[in-house]
Prior knowledge:
The chain is α/β, with parallel strands linked by helices. It is about 40% helix and about 15% strand.
Amino acid sequence: xxxxDRPLGAQAQAIAAGEGDPAELLEQTLARFEQRNPALNAVIxxxxxxxxxxxxxxxxxxxxxxxxxxxxxxxxxWRAQQFGASRSFAAFEPGESGVYRALRDAGAVIAGVANxxxxxxxxxxxxxxxxxxxxxxxxxxxxxGSSSGPGSAVGGRLVAAAVGADGIGSIRYPAxxxxxxxLKPTFGRSAMAGHHLAPVTTTIVSGPLATDAAGCRxxxxxxxxxxxxxxxxxxxxxxxxxxxxxxxxQPAVREACEAAIEALRAETGGEVTEVDPDGLDxxxxxxILVGSTESVGAITPGFLNAVGDELSIVNRAxxxxxxxxxxxxxxxxxxxxxxxxRSLAEVFKQVDVLAxxxxxxxxxxxxxxxxxxxxxxxxxxxxxxRGGGLANLTGTPAVSVPVGFGEGGLPIGLQLEGAxxxxxxxxxxxxxxxxxxxxxxVDALPPIAEPLSAQEAEAAPN
Length: 462
């Protein structure tokens, strides 16, 4: 197996032991971008000379010489972030973001910038000024959003790990859709300096997506600036919730997640308890109201009226809609946030983690991102936040772990959510689940990443 196809930790270990050449690994990564990225559109900017310079100057950190990509939400010294929007709208300047500094100081090499849903405004990833990123398991399906490029890049094995951002599930949705592991950290633990909303946000965090939980632990430790110690999750107390969040799902999604929860219980010698966090049914809409209005103070009617068709019609409408939201609705969302924090504090006295499907359905089509559930036909954006919004609203950590395949052979994700600061425990649980399933789901490869047969390799262009 090529070093490029190995997990993040294995790449770092091989380089540190002198068994892998980081310069060769970088060139292989850039070559793979040329080979696979035209179909995926996961990486929207590369800068080989700057990447090679990062490698030449890389310190002997935990990610020395390892290539990663970074979402188009973070400035670099040589490139401004664009948030998947037109440069004429997202007129930011280059700079040293906290994420960039964390990666640089760990010895990592930023090999490219990854695509994202325009302005981070959807869970699907089907809209971007660069064109949509594509799901590596089915190129006509959504990769998830808004960290669509990081999910697609890791799922398609362009890189072993990527940095995303999560405001209302934006790391976990693409992790679930693309069959990778994605961690939404506890609020305030991961690098955020340089993000344009850092001074005002109470929901957005940077976080890792990787091919496995160990990769998320390694990259997460770098973003946190502190080690996330490994344990075994022995005696894990798992909380499950009845109702739409776990039952109004495609049958294959529900069955895979139930099987994964039982496998996790057995592997850790733990127990499963049914819990009922009060107010959970309102967490999705409350997270949307809070998350989508945090920056509204900087928006003026004059600014909105000056926005032209360089921005999609949907986002033009959403920006204007935010100014029309009644204050009472936003205030009620803040009250619900406080209530849910108290509710979760009580629940986490009984259990260590909450478990339910990351999203209720597999990735929908790019051209029509709707899903069929037992309750009927819904837009993906309507139903995804009911499981993804709680962690952002309350600041608690959550991880999405691949646990199976559903309709069309598309990946299924299980979300594990923990108490404030329990990021390491969530990764322990994710690794326990990998052991229980003998890494069947994390090591599975999408068609675009399957090794070529000898005949195909011979016919392929050099």
